[in-house]
UniProtKB/TrEMBL annotation, chain A:
It is an enzyme of class 1 (oxidoreductase). The branched-chain alpha-keto dehydrogenase complex catalyzes the overall conversion of alpha-keto acids to acyl-CoA and CO(2). It contains multiple copies of three enzymatic components: branched-chain alpha-keto acid decarboxylase (E1), lipoamide acyltransferase (E2) and lipoamide dehydrogenase (E3). It comes from the Bacteria. Pfam families: E1_dh. Its EC number is 1.2.4.4. Belongs to the BCKDHA family. It catalyses: N(6)-[(R)-lipoyl]-L-lysyl-[protein] + 3-methyl-2-oxobutanoate + H(+) = N(6)-[(R)-S(8)-2-methylpropanoyldihydrolipoyl]-L-lysyl-[protein] + CO2. This is 2-oxoisovalerate dehydrogenase subunit alpha. Residues 29-329 form the Dehydrogenase E1 component domain. Its cofactor is thiamine diphosphate. The lineage of its organism: Bacteria, Bacillati, Chloroflexota, Chloroflexia, Chloroflexales. Keywords: Oxidoreductase, Thiamine pyrophosphate.
UniProtKB/TrEMBL annotation, chain B:
Pfam families: Transket_pyr (PF02779), Transketolase_C (PF02780). This is Alpha-ketoacid dehydrogenase subunit beta. It comes from Candidatus Chloroploca mongolica. Coiled coil: none annotated. Keywords: Oxidoreductase, Thiamine pyrophosphate. It comes from the Bacteria. Its cofactor is thiamine diphosphate.
Amino acid sequence: MTVSIADLVPGASESGGDLSAATLREMFRFMLLARVLDERMWLLNRAGKAPFVISCQGHEAAQVGAAFALTRGKDFTLPYYRGLATVLVMGMTPTEVMLGLFARATDPSSGGRQMPAHYSHRRLKIITQSSPVGTQIAHAAGVGLAERIKGGDAVVWTSFGEGTTSQGDFHEGINLAAVQQLPVIFQCENNEYAISVPQKQQMAVTSVADRGPAYGIPGISVDGTDLLSVYEVTRRAVERARRGDGSTLIEARVVRLTAHSSDDNDRTYRSQRELKSMRLSDPLARFAAYLHDQDMLSEAEERDLRAEIGAEVDAATEAAEQAPMPDPETLHNYVYAL
Amino acid sequence: MPEINLLEAIRQGLDEMMAQDDRIFIFGEDVGRRGGVFRVTEGLIDKYGPLRVLDSPLAESVIVGACIGAAMNDTRPIAEIQFADFIAPAFNQIVQEAARIHYRSNGDWSVPMVIRAPYGGGIHGALYHSQSIEAFFAHVPGLKVVAPATPYDAKGLLKSAIEDNNPVLFLEHKKTYRLIKGQVPEHDYRVPIGPAEIKRPGEDLSVFAYGLMIHYCLEAAQSLAASGVSVEVVDLRTLRPLDVPTILASSRRTGKVLIVHEDNLTGGFGGEIAALIAEHAFEYLDAPIVRLGGPDVPAMPFARSLEDAFMPNPQKIIEAMRRLAAY
Ligand SMILES: Cc1ncc(C[n+]2csc(CCOP(=O)(O)OP(=O)(O)O)c2C)c(N)n1
Ligand SMILES: [Mg+2]
């Protein structure tokens, strides 16, 4: 079932629900920041300055919409490698992101140990991610289990792609969370590809959300290029989790506007037509048009915002490039915790 | 000092730690009402409730994976893998996640958890209830691997493992559970993770082993003493981090080395010990280093005759010791 905000809250798509114009502009700012940072990373990659980039382009609305429904500093996120917009909303700075891209010593995710986009930030409750897909889904269930044991009311949010739903940890993690009614939100960002493999070779159902009821939890499919719908669906899932009523599986249908990563060439498996038409689903353009429509953002304001963000990304890039590399002497640090 | 078996020592260790620290919880198959298939956790659900002694779904990857997540949310999980043979589905979570999280986050996150796993054969468990799995995991930096042989060590090491801020794989030899009894003090004590212990001092040769094999080696050493061969039996207790100084000191002293484990010989942990001795104590050796291990067959068969043929036992160890002493 695909829901839009209009189904959930009558009239909501016009009013933006209960969100103030200022909040809507802030959401747009995060989407734009994620996009500009992401595009800059590709430029740096093509210029030979960054060996690896993996993108959130096309996923911004799904991530910003969801993250705005969480409480920063309180709720846990376990975002997968496309989660740039997620971590920005949760409090990671553009400079911190760039430190990760350049594998600098002060990269908060890993001190330059991991590939870029393997996000982590303990103070921000962003839990460290690895490369084997889906392992975080089991961790998310466990973070929720601990929250239950501690008697706390933090909510846990994790994300992953639709290809990853074929992994055993997807099943095991969601099943545990469902059985124990844990406060966990599972967001599948369905961009219809796992590198080159299309969704229909990954699963025999048309929507990942169809699986929710099989585990005994709600499964909701939402247009992930529509920021307000994602926000509303996630807000309800957060309420449900905080009340102690358990988990929700959300499928956010998104587009992957880039190749899988900087090492992929999607022209080998996507048609010219598709490469062109997916641009029509760009969530950033869609939300910008909505804000213009609602007179919440003028063309001039958007121009100014782009200039401001461009300068911010320039500064972040420069600061990160100048930061020192990890000292080879530190190779042996942190094998074991004290 | 009361005498208890190894299983009771582990249960006491769990109980005493859970009483002191309500962040500790147990998560595994049948650990609740049933008290575990070996009854290690028996009675704990009544004392600590179903939230802290929690039956998991039948899914090893999430048993470990959820404990990893829980450990990062300020609890101290103890995962129970019902039989070590079924740890394979959790290999990814243990090796790629638990062992690497502290390193990959540059020290920001850590995973204080224990994974208890009953292992080992000689109990008519056949291929899938007899395995020794230590070599797979002792290879992995970031993970600690502990394999106690006595009730005293089991309780003391378990407490240390629970307090450790790293993932600790805690291997309990199934045959020792009820077979091995020993004195365990009533007072609170710890056995630190790391140091080996010389369980029997001797002069003519050094034997390195752990778990059930320690008892077989002690039996063999005892019977050789009558014929005037003095055997030193070193209980490694911890495989990772390994007590290299104790291994080297004993090897240098006796000049002859026998390593015994139940795990398959090839690629077994004995190879690492042999390599360390060859590298650092070569000039002190009076004989080639000898390894006695399980044969290189896929796993331990069920039939009594085949199981006996697989398992190292005191008789096989005596023969190996004799040959080495005479070299
Ligand atoms: C366990 C595992 N197998 C293979 C890979 C290689 N790999 C990385 S991303 C990816 C595709 C993931 O697709 P999906 O889950 O749909 O996420 P998306 O990248 O489309 O957002 C693959 C196969 C991996 N990282 N982990
Ligand atoms: Mg995908």
